[in-house]
Design a protein that fits this description.
Layout lengths: L7 H8 L5 E6 L7 H10 L19 H6 L6 E7 L3 H4 L7 E7 L7 H5 L1
Parallel strand pairs: 1-3
Antiparallel strand pairs: 2-3
Length: 115
């Protein structure tokens, strides 16, 4: 299910609701799909196309990260989660703010993960 890219006003409103905020950091060893999973979650918000998810490496914004194909700096993004129709019931769906962090998996960049 694709959620339309949230507008800034919605993100700000959700930040004021601690009960609707979820913080998520993806940790795993190098080449285990952290950035691909992050791309898939970003595409679910309509920020990138689902075809680009896993290839674009959206959170790897540095040239050396793109060239080497590895994440060297932790990156964060705010996403909105809307429950699928089967979980919504009759009431309007509550949406959650997901603060997502994509972390490096290589031991050489461990300080990025621990800070």
């Amino acid at each position: 299910q694709v959620v339309m890219a949230p507008v800034v006003a919605e993100l700000v409103a959700l930040q004021g609701r601690p009960d609707r905020v979820r913080n998520l950091c993806i940790l795993a060893h190098v080449d285990h799909g952290k950035t691909s999973l992050t791309d898939a979650l970003i595409s679910s918000n309509g920020i990138i196309s689902s075809r680009q998810a896993g290839r674009l490496r959206y959170m790897d914004s540095r040239d050396d990260e793109q060239d080497r194909g590895i994440t060297m700096k932790a990156s964060a993004i705010a996403l909105v989660y809307a429950p699928p129709p089967s979980e919504r019931g009759a009431a309007a769906p509550e949406r959650d703010l997901i603060n997502l962090v994509d972390s490096p998996g290589h031991v050489d960049f461990g300080t990025e993960v621990s800070t």
